[in-house]
Amino acid sequence: MRSYRTLFRTPEYTPFLLSFAAHAAAQTIGGLALGTLVYRATGSPLLSALSMFGPQLAQLLGAAFLLSGADRLPPRAVLTVISLAFAAGTAVLALPGLPVRAVFVVLLLQGLVASLGGGVRGGLMNEILPANGYVLGRSVFNMLWGLVQMTGFAAGGALLAFLTPRLCLLLAAAFYVASALVNHLGLTPRPPRSAGRPSFSATWRTNALLWSSRPRRLVYLGLWVPNGLVVGGDSLYISYAPAAAGTMYACGALGMFAGDLAVGRLVPPALRPRLATPLRLLLAVPYLFFVLRPSVPLSAVAAAVASVGFAASLVLQERLMSLTPDHLAGQALGLHTTGMVALQGIGALMAGTLAQLTSPATAMTLMAAASIAVTLTLFALERRLVPDDVSPDLRECGRTGR
What are phi and psi of 386, to 5 degrees? Predict the structure, then answer.
């Protein structure tokens, strides 16, 4: 599938995107408002960064107990409940006088709920789209995420100039409710992809199977670590340039949109596998210049150029699906999403700690250097793979995912 027209004729794909757009808008506006609220209350770059990205750490715990539900629960119902739970939690965060400790308790609970979302959403998209449409469909999905981030952060920055952070949080809660309504009204009820009940043992058994393949392990690490280190540096935008953080996030989203458009629509399929390492390097290299403490306009340009590198996830997700049986696609993508956002949370913790000890600019530079080192190490390990490095589950199933 190489045509956007054909893609949008696919039943359910449009409401699927609309529900995600509303959820993403809530996440960007609410995240910026909450990060600003915490920074104004504490003056701490660490707590501000963790308020935006720390909940993703909780997804590690959720992944241990809940991730098998990505394939064993009805997707429409799960996505609807997740959006409603986020709406309720965000409304609580808007309560006046809520202590900072209570804020992080709510964020912990939201992170546990969110641990199911990536796998359910990814598995459902894999079902909705035809076999040859995953990369194009995923690129549009990522481009929409970039557009919503760009407009959401820009709008969030503008709204914070006129409204209080708490009113912005209530607006985010309304977007979560809208996402739940679109899920319920626009998606078809579908049965779970796999039989059985979600459980701790089923989650760990499948995670162990997914992790047992050396090629898949390297793909997962490539999806998680370089990305997480760079996003950890991104979490310092508020402390780096408090008055222009929304602009920097919006420019980063613009770069992400451009990268996904180029890789998903313009790059020939035969060329895509060769771009994984160059794109991961592009993701980090521009941030090395932050050691010079560039002005806000130059910083925004660097963020936009670097964010083109987020398109590496398209290439690596395509590789992951080629290494994964169809009936495990939801949990495989859920493990990817959970690991990615957890590493982003760890990255935010690392970057915030470094910023407390040095400065936001220095911390962002160090996180970028670490990302480059990890990418080069993974590239060296990938070159040492041999044809026999194929997991037993693929040989037994005799088929791969989309």
Answer: -120, 160
CB 332 within 8 A of CB 324: yes
Distance in angstroms (rounded) separating the CA atoms of residues 143 and 229: 21
Indicate the burial class of 44 (C-beta count within 10 angstroms; 0-12, 13-18, 19 or more).
Answer: middle
Question: Nearest-CA neighbor of 90 among 20, 37, 139?
Answer: 37
In the block, residue with structure tokens 């996030």: 249
Interval 123-174: pLDDT, tens: 888 888 886 777 788 888 878 877 787 787 778 878 888 888 999 999 999 9
Tokens of 193: 């992809």
- Cβ–Cβ under 8 Å, residues 183 and 82: no
DSSP-based three-state secondary structure for 43: coil
DSSP collapsed to 3 states, 268-287:
CCCCHHHHHHHHHHHHHHHH
The CA-atom distances, in angstroms, between 50 and each of 14, 108, 185, 236, 344 are 33, 11, 34, 10, 10
Q: Are 240 and 360 in contact (CB under 8 A)?
A: yes
Strands (E), 88-150: none
